Amino acid sequence: MTAQNVRLGIIGLGTQGGTYTRFLAEGRVEGMTLGAICDIDPAKKEVAAAKHPDTPFHDDYIAMLESGDVDAVVTTVPHYLHPEMTITAIGKGIHTLTEKPAGVYIKQVEEMNAFAAAHPETTFAIMFNQRTNPVYTDLKALIDSGELGALRHTSWIITTWWRPQPYYDQSAWRATWGGEGGGVLVNQAPHQLDLWQWLCGTPKSVFAKLAFGFRRDIATEDEVNALVDFGNGATGHFLTSTNDLVGTDRLEILFDKGKVVVDGSKKVTITRLTQDERSLSDNLSVADVGRLFKGEMNTDDLYATEVKEYESVWGKQHIDVLTNFAAHINDGTELIADGAEGINGVRLASGMQLSAWTGREIDLVDYPTEEYLTELNKRIVDEGTFPTRS
């Protein structure tokens, strides 16, 4: 295929859509230009006209798809609309980069993935920009190398999502079952849910305790404690909330031959054992144990520690995904995140919700798709504001 400047259409000129529009207008995305803007809010037409007067504006995304103005689109719209718009765009031969999460419930995401799979000539990607963060790309490479051995357990505390009440009050759809489909799990934490599985593997089951409207006047979850089973004896814990003013971002992953700790998504501490942990345990003498407990043993015989510090450049990760999206369209460059992979985070998030609703462990391999949708619709009906889903 001859390389081209892929003309990207922005569906939804909100905060995120506006950011992408600016990146494109400033020429910061190699292989991609701003093709058109779409928003149903008349006020956004004035914004677009003032900032991007030469860019076509549409108030109907289907009209934009059919206009000939765009080769690809990004769906910066409410979560429930991601699958619907993706299916429509791909059906019209328009390459699609969907925002996270891939959707709210598995049934709609499965339909989206199946439709995309039936149209392999059209690119389908998802905005998992954290997969371009050097902190996690380096960690992924280390884990995949096998140097640290098999996973034992992992824990991610990600409570840096403090949201005051006015944040929720600014929009009627925010933190509702019918408008947003959830709280912290579908709005703030999808990147961590994706990264966790990308690094450690897809969990087999989950048991969770969620608090709904715990410290905020909302319907959905604002605090989550979940335990997952990765199989082969490996387990994990995930804690997130929107009511911790100070907040913590700490990921720990323990392996047979070492351990990784990531603090603040910036500082990475890697501990490499001289042998696998069980061999070290079995080969110590009683005298060695005594010296170890007294702090007299040379730990260099047991492990070595490396610390890495990373700097983050705001916006670069999103630009990297957009650039990769264009490169895939132009020459088949491997996607950073294939759109089909978005289902993993949706399954885990909705599994946590369903576990809290039912009080039982949820099988993520043989996932109860219809049961989740039934429970979700019960809550949408109770809200009495939004239509149920099918």
TrEMBL record:
Among the GO molecular function terms of this UniProt record, one is:
nucleotide binding
Where in this chain does the record put each GFO/IDH/MocA-like oxidoreductase domain?
Answer: 137-260
Which InterPro entries does UniProt cross-reference here? Gfo/Idh/MocA-like_OxRdtase_N, Gfo/Idh/MocA_Oxidoreductase, GFO_IDH_MocA-like_dom, NAD(P)-bd_dom_sf
Family matches, as Pfam families: GFO_IDH_MocA, GFO_IDH_MocA_C3
Q: Per its UniProt record, what Gene3D superfamilies does this chain match? A: Dihydrodipicolinate Reductase, domain 2, NAD(P)-binding Rossmann-like Domain
Give the Gfo/Idh/MocA-like oxidoreductase N-terminal domain ranges.
7-120
Q: Which PANTHER family match?
A: D-GLUCOSIDE 3-DEHYDROGENASE, UDP-N-ACETYL-2-AMINO-2-DEOXY-D-GLUCURONATE OXIDASE
**Name of the protein in its database record:** Predicted dehydrogenase
